[in-house]
Amino acid sequence: MSNTLIDRLAAIVGASQVSADPDVLEGRSLDHTGRYRGRASALVRPGTTEEVAGVLRECREAGVHVTVQGGRTSLVAGAVPEYDDVLLSTERLTEVGAVDAVDRRVRVGAGVTLAAVQRAAAKAGLVFGVDLAARDSATVGGMASTNAGGLRTVRYGNMGEQIIGLEVVLPDGSIVHRHSEVRRDNTGYDLAALFVGAEGTLGVITALDLRLHPTPPHRVTAVCGFDDLDDLVAAGREFRDMAAIAALELIDSRASALTAAHLGVAAPVAGAWQLLIELAADTDPTEQLADALENVALSDEPAVGVDAVAQQRLWQVRESLAEILGLYGPPLKFDVSLPLSAISSFADESRELVAAHAPDAIPVLFGHIGEGNLHLNVLRCQLEGAREAELYGAMMALIARCGGNVSSEHGVGTRKRDYVGMSRTEADIAAMRTVKAAFDPAGYLNGAVLFD
């Protein structure tokens, strides 16, 4: 990168917000998982939408690739630069507007963390519909770009269903303001939806109008143990269609054994598989939970929490998983969605596949069973290079054979771009490339993401 471009970027955002320090860039070029590293030439941190626009115009004119970074919690190398890119960070776009408690909405900057949105909503007696374990670092701009799901998806839907409006800077530096004060606005193309899940390939989201929800006054949480995964899936089918469902999480016993051994957080029930169920409603749903559990094939008496302290205790194993995943070095991660009917066979075959490629590795399976969105983490996986690629490709092929998608809530990033054809037809991919070319004919914005 030329010093001239550095000077022009500094003129836009201020010299203190541009860095070409190799140590800074090295830290910013490592994937959140710790497995994938890229190369960057500069970091720039604009503080307004207009500054983002100016940065994009300068980089486009200079023919320099740009990779957009938010909280850098991507698990598929979505924020890893590949072309000595300029890293455009949204971390200074942190304004949180006043919560409109009547219309239940709030406008926030793309760099605002999920936890900050949750706090603002809670102060107004409301709740935000998406929750993730990475809530303290994940930013809502990045979550919109990947259409993140998480712990509450079974009730409220993915990130896209929480977005009322967006502010986006296009690759040519123009700014699209798609904000509306009305609940129903069907004027022209739904441009906002186009940028949700686009992983920053079509523009840089700088601000969002988010939908908030009433806080249910009554809540009950249970953890149930199962010896047979098919029995758990059958229970999941029943619970996911209940009006009061608030969370439905699968945890395997290998995960709970690790949290018990390393964090002192043991599973509250026995069984090879655990299902965390939470119901929330205007009236006490405890009796509804008890009735639903009567015909479920449990391996043990369920653990039930009716007050906040007991509920928090039941959530501990699930919430502690993020802390143990890196105990044996960077895990190899697979984020997939599967038909519920295929989950049991996938669990068996994926375990065999890992054993064949990495006998010392520990496969840990957990996730959002209501949507069939599972996270397979392979711990103590020492594979590198061609051997890692061989296991990764074989796992992607298994997912496709099971009728699943190679990506669910984490996106494609750079890690899964070679496997998009397993979940999308050639015509689908061609159409997406056409859209990309229309917005970014030079292909300089997040150029390594989604497409090869």
Automatic annotation (TrEMBL):
Keywords of this entry: FAD, Flavoprotein, Oxidoreductase
Keyword Oxidoreductase: yes
Keyword Membrane listed: no
Pfam family name, one: FAD_binding_4
Annotated GO MF terms: FAD binding; oxidoreductase activity
Residue stretches making up the FAD-binding PCMH-type domain: 36-215
GO biological process, one term: respiratory electron transport chain
Gene3D superfamilies the UniProt entry points to: 3.30.465.10, 3.30.70.2190, 3.30.70.2740, Uridine Diphospho-n-acetylenolpyruvylglucosamine Reductase, domain 2 (3.30.43.10), Vanillyl-alcohol Oxidase, Chain A, domain 4 (1.10.45.10)
Domain of life of the native organism: Bacteria
UniProt cofactor(s): FAD
Family the entry assigns: Belongs to the FAD-binding oxidoreductase/transferase type 4 family.
Protein name: Oxidoreductase
Organism field: Mycolicibacterium agri (Mycobacterium agri)
